[in-house]
Amino acid sequence: MRFSHARHARAKPRYARIGVGVAAVVAMLVPGVAHADAGFDNSSWQGCYNAQAAKNSGASFSITKITEGVNYVNPAADCQLQANRAAGLRIGAYGYARPEYGNSPEAEADFFNAQSNARGLVHAGVIPFLDWEPPASHRGDTEWAKRWLDRVASYWGVKPIIYMSASTISAGDWRAVAGADYGLWVAGYPRGYAGERLRDPGAPPYSVAPWPFAAAWQYSSSGHVPGVGTAVDVNWWYGDAGTWAKYANAPIGTRPNPVAPSLTPQQGAPVGDAASIASAVIRGDYGNDPQRHALLGNRYNEVMAAVNERLRGNTGGGTGSGVYVVRPGDCLSAVFGGSWPTVARLNGIHAPYVIHPGQRLSTGGGGAGGRSVTVRRGDTLSGIAARLGVPQGQLHGYRSGDPGLIYPGEVLSY
Known about the structure:
Layout: H1 20-28, E1 37-42, H2 51-56, E2 59-68, E3 72-73, H3 77-87, E4 90-96, H4 105-118, E5 127-131, H5 142-156, E6 161-165, H6 166-169, H7 175-179, E7 183-187, E8 196-197, E9 216-225, E10 229-237, H8 241-248, H9 265-268, H10 274-283, H11 291-296, H12 300-311, E11 323-325, H13 332-336, H14 340-346, E12 360-362, E13 372-374, H15 381-388, E14 411-413
Parallel strand pairs: 1-2, 2-4, 4-5, 5-6, 6-7, 7-9, 8-9
Antiparallel strand pairs: 1-10, 2-3, 9-10, 11-12, 13-14
Helix pairs in contact: 1-8, 4-5, 10-12
Pfam families: CW_7, Glyco_hydro_25, LysM
Domain LysM: 323-364, 372-413
Organism: Bifidobacterium actinocoloniiforme DSM 22766
């Protein structure tokens, strides 16, 4: 698969707790009804797509990435959700876990909850999912995962489903998670990365114990889904609309009404320390003002002060020479996005590209904070570089991290 409510001060509707494992099994045993169907999951990589074409090709549901960690929101989520609803697809929403960043599961869950609520997904027939694919050092941290699941379940009144690869199941003791009735969405690609399609792949050829069965199977990441793409994650759901409704703890036929978020400062303020959020701002995750101001909410001044300090290279010397000071937990790609190879080259950093807290990195800007250019409609990165007479690799700050994807209004440094 490839903002913050600290204590949930406002009362939320309470929904009856259900045993989704038992409910799903019972639903599958009702005769005369088709009890499995196909769908796909999506993130920013798919951009805005034609969900009706996907529906016409056999898709019944789509599971959309909403957040990652405590400060990233899928920039295409809103158009994807609107398209899914318009096409009549059942909707799932997932948060991508980042325990390796030192985030608490409660902070990540709160961020996911608030962003999902802002989009009209909570208590609306939507199933929440946790995307669990951290690095090997954190893969077996089942307690972290369960705390996220518990936090989301309390807020939504819905038992989330956890996604992981078949090999990750053996990385930890998942009995407490399975025993708490959190379903499993397993991933495994027995056909490798050959071209695939929406189809019935049968039962997963893997052990899913301690779960008695998988709620869904992602059987390929190379699926051709018309209207969406040719390298799409395709999935098989072991149930139908009725089963989905039971997992979502909602009446059958409940339809979400996804809306573009209208973030107030209190609702939209991200959680986490200012230094971590500043890294995300520098990376481009929060875009430019006024979007950045809306997303940072009442933490805008605090975070931007940290951003400005770091971009000035403020270590007491006040050099103001386009120098970045490395903070604990930083890595080149996280701080500089798609321009990290340029920064590495400027500073003589080679594989394995290790940087250290306190290290001063030249960003190549020079002068009093460097130079900048605003992306215009129709611009490409190579075109901007040619216009300015600079190497393309010297341009950085595009929030997608992909040199082939820049947005009008973005301010790039060089």
